[in-house]
Design goal:
405 residues, alpha+beta, Beta-Lactamase, Helix Hairpins, Heat Shock Protein 90, 3 domains, five-stranded antiparallel beta sheet, five-stranded mixed beta sheet
């Protein structure tokens, strides 16, 4: 038994009244001394229940083999070991309940024997607090994640709402722009119609008035002349109205392309014949074609393009001039060129040529609505085609169109 130094009343008092468990074991792991606090920690009533027994009775069964190994190793190279080394140690109470421990070790030699003194601290409360903190942190993290996810969803909903509002704003602006454009179109229609209708209507009225005066057979040539003037004026009014209607249908997306295999050469030749009466004195229209004559397009749209460009060439070219039309079909592509030797188009006006109601500065005094070339360009676009203009003042103008299958 250990007697050295423990005979002192002071040491005995410290040993017995310490607020930490103190256990002294010999080199064989037998408990020699144990203070009251340690006895209570392990759930025993008296130190006598533990003295003389192996220390591993205070260690869970599952850990005893490891403890024996550690004890043998420690006795071979004993050294002080403080608490708080981060080791998870467990003790077992008399009831069999396991609880976490923190142990610091020291050693000393008395009467030629080595003893190990263990300072044992029950850290159940601390472990519970740590676990509570871990659970609290986990709960906080979960709540933060939930809150973050909620905020993320809110932000996503806000972004979606913003995008939806932006889309609605865009649609509203587009609707307002279309409404404004429609208003401008109506205003331009009234302006252009009042101007363009005046001449043919005056012709109809004056010719109708004169027809009433020509009653005799001898007056038949004069009647025929005025009847033809009325017919021409009515046809002109029809063309003007058709231009306005076609623009409206294009803007509303109501124009449908109806493709069919078309003999381009024959269609153009027939159109030239139909417009023969529009030619000025000694004007010539020369048409040439290369390659296959058949091409898939909308014949009505294509004819409208030919009529518009050819009638413009006739209208803006002088007498005794030549208008050339060239077409070619090669590698699934149709090329069309209509070239005149007329007044030409000012360079500053050419970039606006295909805009609605636009008229070149040098064409203001010549009848026209400013819609024809706009319709031509839109028809070409609808048939997967393109159009460009080449023009020089007083030398003439050429329109080149390309269509691909």
């Amino acid at each position: 038994m250990v007697n050295t130094n423990l005979d002192s009343e002071l040491i005995q008092a410290l040993f017995n009244h310490s607020s930490i468990g103190i256990i002294v074991v010999d080199e064989h792991g037998i408990i020699n001394l144990i203070n009251r606090f340690a006895v209570t920690q392990f759930g025993y009533d008296d130190a006598a229940q533990l003295k003389g027994h192996k220390f591993d009775m205070l260690i869970p069964q599952r850990l005893r083999a490891r403890h024996e190994h550690h004890h043998a190793g420690y006795m071979q190279a004993p050294k002080s070991r403080p608490m708080g080394l981060g080791l998870d140690l467990f003790g077992v109470r008399k009831s069999g309940e396991e609880f976490p421990l923190e142990i610091s070790l020291g050693n000393y030699v008395a009467d030629g024997k080595r003893f190990v003194i263990a300072f044992v601290n029950d850290i159940t409360a601390r472990k519970n607090a740590e676990q509570a903190i871990i659970q609290l942190n986990a709960e906080l993290e979960r709540k933060v994640e939930e809150r973050t996810e909620s905020l993320r969803q809110t932000v996503a909903q806000l972004n979606e709402q913003i995008e939806e509002n932006q889309q609605k704003d865009k649609e509203l602006r587009e609707a307002l722009d279309k409404e404004k454009e429609l208003g401008e179109l109506k205003s331009r229609f009234v302006s252009v119609a009042s101007h363009e209708f005046r001449t043919p209507l005056s012709t109809v009225l004056s010719s109708t008035y004169l027809l009433q005066k020509y009653q005799t057979t001898e007056d038949q040539p004069k009647r025929d002349k005025h009847i033809q003037r009325i017919i021409s004026s009515v046809n002109l009014l029809t063309d003007i109205l058709n231009d306005f209607l076609n623009v409206g249908r294009i803007e509303e997306g109501k124009i449908q392309v109806r493709y069919s295999i078309t003999n381009v050469q024959k269609l153009i030749q027939d159109t030239i014949s139909e417009l023969a009466t529009l030619r000025k004195s000694l004007q010539q229209i020369i048409y040439t074609h290369e390659g296959n004559v058949d091409f898939e397009l909308d014949p009505n749209m294509f004819k409208h393009i030919i009529i518009n460009l050819l009638s413009n060439a006739i209208k803006f070219s002088p007498e005794n001039s030549e208008i050339s039309i060239r077409t070619s079909i090669q590698d699934s592509t149709l090329h069309l060129s209509i070239k005149d030797k007329g007044i030409g188009i000012p360079p500053e006006d050419q970039e606006h040529l295909f805009e609605r109601f636009f008229r070149a500065a040098n064409a203001m005094n010549i009848q026209g609505t400013g819609l024809g070339l706009h319709i031509v360009a839109r028809y070409a676009e609808l048939m997967n085609g393109s159009i460009i203009c080449k023009s020089e003042m007083e030398k003439g103008t050429e329109f080149v169109l390309t269509f691909s299958k």
